[in-house]
Amino acid sequence: MPPLALLALLVAAWEAWVRVAGIDPSVIPAPTRVAAALRDQAGPLYENSLTTLAETLIGLGLGAVLGLVVAIVIAGSRLARSAVEPLLVVLQTVPPIVLAPILVLALGFGWAPRIAVVTAIVFFPVAIAAAGAFVSADPSRIELMRSFGASRLDVLRHVTLPGAVPAIFDGVRISAAYAVAGAAISEQIGGAEGGLGLFIVRSQRSFRADQVVAAVVVIAALSVVIYAVVGLLARKAAPWHHIHRTEAP
What we know:
CATH superfamily: MetI-like
CATH topology: MetI-like fold
Structural class: mainly alpha
Number of strands: 0
CATH class: Mainly Alpha
Mean pLDDT: 82
Shape: elongated
Distance between the termini: 22 Å
Helix content: over 70%
Order of helices and strands: HHHHHHHHHHH
Radius of gyration: 22 Å
Low-confidence stretches: none
Number of domains: 1
Largest sheet: none
């Protein structure tokens, strides 16, 4: 209730400020105008959100898988860790959106550069989080497995990977909050034929600020839903981790 009450208070203050100040709706629309735009443009917003959502989910899956593979390579070799891990940290400081024009030149127009942007957004947090979890795995459990003749693959399957599941999902959940926005921004650069990013561009050209804000509201809603779904999957995949976190206080 407190977050909802605060949100309602902010929206009411926004509405009152726009009406009292007499601000041009083409510059800053009132929440009532945004609500009307959500109602009137429900069809186009729904169709474009499906495109953005598909790009986001594909990018999330690819980024998580690639990040996990790189983390396994880093954890399995000290040489690979010393060579690759610093490079990952440096590359993470470069916003993937900055790479969007380069990806368009390299991959052409279409879905490929937009999915690549989302994949990059997800890849770095997952790779770094998973690699850290692999390296910090309980050494006593690893030695116990090896004492029974377990191979590296057995240790990975039964010790390091299960222990890294919470960290992997934390990386996916953190990046999921930005993935939808990244897909929408890349649609504005990558010559998209649909998507919420293209809807925003067309609304800007028509001086429909209410539609722009409506699309932003949809992007925020999709981000919250994906974030919540990833959190639910994390609870299902590692219930012991969340039980301990709940009981810790």
